[in-house]
Specification:
Elements (H helix, E strand, L loop, with lengths): L1 H22 L7 H14 L1 H10 L8 H5 L2 H29 L5 H22 L9 H31 L11 H27 L19 H10 L15 H24 L1
């Protein structure tokens, strides 16, 4: 039965990925977020495609600015950006851990380091450096805390999910088996859910960007309302601006590490049962 479920999952994922990869080309979103939705769909199948349609796809020409201005869609874009970038490093870490025969806490550390490194240095700082005035070093400094907090919550949800499934599904630790990729997909999906509330806080306090609207030079939104909505959305994408966050960043950082520690502890308890 499990093999049948996985076969259906992969078939639907392939169809969803094809749809998003083709359709998103005409969506007036930034290139990095377009790639992010493609990666998220590769990880989470039809759920990723559903989130793209519900959260980013322009419903009518000229309405993208207004459509993505809602806080929950801004947060969706922020969380998706985190999971898409971190997920590449996490998957690489999982594969390398399997190849070199490491497991347990060592595997968690490898996945965390590679996931954080790729998400922070590439998807956050490199791809979004224009938001820091074009300076890569400034982008690294301005995105470090946001990436750290989001990554901690992602791993807090993903680690116990993956460990619990691997301990119960044969061959789920072998990258040559489709079961491995199914389990990692489930882990990243749960990690996405865990990271969403933290990204809401980050977006609300202008520590992370959300959805954006990028149109060809000379093109404009079809209505003045859409252009006005873009102006309202802009503060959510201006990282580091506004009043001091509440709760303070150190408190949220501590809470994120406590959540990560709890997730890892639960993971090892589940694996032992």
């Amino acid at each position: 039965m499990l093999d049948g479920v996985m076969l259906l999952w992969f078939v639907l994922t392939a169809a969803a990925l094809l749809f998003v990869a083709v359709d998103i080309r005409t969506t007036p979103e930034s290139p990095v977020l377009k790639w992010g939705f493609v990666l998220l769909t590769a990880y989470t199948g039809v759920i990723g495609a559903f989130l793209y349609v519900l959260g980013c796809r322009e419903p009518l020409p000229g309405l993208h600015e207004r459509y993505v201005a809602a806080r929950w869609r801004q947060t969706l874009g922020s969380t998706m950006h985190c999971v898409a970038g971190d997920g590449v490093g996490i998957l690489a870490g999982a594969v390398l851990s399997s190849v070199f025969g490491v497991a347990g806490m060592v595997e968690v550390v490898v996945e965390y380091i590679l996931g954080f490194a790729f998400g922070w240095t590439i998807f956050q700082a490199l791809f979004m450096r224009d938001m820091a005035g074009g300076s890569y070093l400034r982008a690294l400094r301005s995105t470090f805390v946001a990436e750290l907090l989001s990554m901690n919550l992602l791993m807090a949800g993903m680690v116990p999910t993956v460990m619990a499934l691997k301990s119960r599904i044969p061959f789920a630790g072998d990258p040559a088996s489709p079961r491995f990729w199914f389990v990692m997909s489930m882990g990243l999906l749960v990690g996405f859910i865990f990271a969403y509330p933290m990204n809401w806080w980050l977006v609300a306090h202008h520590l992370k960007h959300g959805m954006m609207t990028v149109r060809p030079a000379g093109a404009a939104a079809g209505t003045h309302a859409g252009m006005d909505a873009a102006a309202h959305a802009a503060p959510a994408m201006s990282m580091g601006s506004g009043e001091a966050p509440w709760p303070p960043i150190p408190v949220m950082t501590l809470l994120s590490f406590l959540a990560l520690a709890a997730g890892v502890a639960i993971a090892f308890l589940l694996r032992a049962t």
